[in-house]
Design brief:
Shape: elongated
Radius of gyration: 19 Å
Strand content: under 5%
GO molecular function, one term: heme transmembrane transporter activity
Organism: Marinobacter lutaoensis
Structural class: mainly alpha
Main location: membrane
Low-confidence stretches: 3-11
Mean pLDDT: 85
GO biological process, one term: cytochrome c biosynthetic process
Number of helices: 9
Subcellular location: Cell inner membrane
Number of strands: 0
Distance between the termini: 45 Å
Order of helices and strands: HHHHHHHHH
Length: about 240
Amino acid sequence: MTEHRRRLASSDVGLLAAMKAVFLRDLRVAFRQRQDLVNPLLFFVMVVTLFPLGVSPEVSFLREAGAGILWVAALLSVLLSLDHLFRHDYDDGTLEQLVLQPQPLFLLVLAKTLAHWMLTGLPLVLLAPVLGVMVHQPGNSIAVLCLTLLIGTPALSLIGAIGAALTLGLRSAGVLLSLLIIPLYIPVLIFGTGTVAAAAEGAPVGGHLALMAAFLVLALTLAPFAAASALRISLSNS
């Protein structure tokens, strides 16, 4: 019985070490290719900055539509970065080695998705207060906006990992990825903007945040399995 427990403990340590290695490797690769790291953030800032110039700079309009502008810009920024989630590993053969590892592939995919969120989603959350002030959002709305982005952007990365895995190795993968993923992003977008709108009206937002947390838990539970299966399918067809 003691020997069995030691084997379980050693396997857990090996699994955590593998996930940590994948996570840290993705961070190092991203900082070497800084253009891929900076492009989604610049896109986020440019969309939010140019929208008032192209539509209306009136304070009342921006105060009403600001949360939607920020959420749509964040969604598109995450979508812009998804094509690189597995692409570099696919091109240099690292992805095939991950599939052959003894550790469960879905946990390695989860580590890669977490690294993607740390590099893309978390910076968007940190930029949101500054851009929220730019579109004349009140203080309580900015706080709720940041909270919804903190809950919603990991779900966007997890859902996007499925589409990135399915379109891996295909021509015009970016267009197909958008067609596959945007419909799945709509519930997160609706509840994200709805939560901020409720906060602006003084309504309770606990129910909205609970639903967003439920979406995140659902994505965290199912998306790594789906992405791992899609990776195996894509590699077998390549």
